[in-house]
Amino acid sequence: MNELGEGRTINVLRLCVDRTESDSSRIPDRPTELERLNPATAVRRRDLHFRMGDMPSMPDHDGGAEMKGRLIDGRAFDPSRPDLTARLGEVEIWRLTTNIQSSDSSAPEPIPGADP
Asked: What is the pTM of this model?
């Protein structure tokens, strides 16, 4: 459920299980060891700011009011558009900031996959 949505944008996912399958997956005994990167070898630094704001017109949006959505550096999020590219093997330092608040907390909403 999208607690920030309105109308059709509230319910964003529905899973329907229609059969039973075997599960051969397993949880590892310990987490994977990650290589520590040296900040001194960084080839660039990037600042990305995430916030809520007005979205451009969307073809499937049926409301007359402007839609609100997530913006990255002032641009509407678009999963089909790469906003940044990085070269394999290069170290970059990314600083991610947000003013988006979780609906049930006064703490900023976490960015998935980001190391705090």
From this structure: 0.52
Cβ-based neighbour number of residue 71 at 10 Å: 17
CB-CB neighbours of 103 under 10 Å: 9
For Cα atoms 67, 114, 68, give the angle at the middle one, nearest 5 degrees. 5
Count other C-beta atoms under 10 Å from residue 51's C-beta.
13
CA-based nearest residue to 58, from 99, 98, 8, 101: 8
Amino acid present at 3 = E
**Rounded to a whole number, what is the distance in angstroms from the first to the last CA of the chain?**
25
One digit per residue, the tens of pLDDT, for the chain of length 116 reads 677 777 777 777 778 888 999 999 999 999 888 889 999 999 999 999 988 887 765 555 554 456 777 888 888 888 888 888 999 999 999 998 887 765 554 555 555 555 55
**Alpha carbon distance 91, 105 (integer Å):** 33
Handedness of CA 88, 51, 101, 93 (dihedral sign): positive
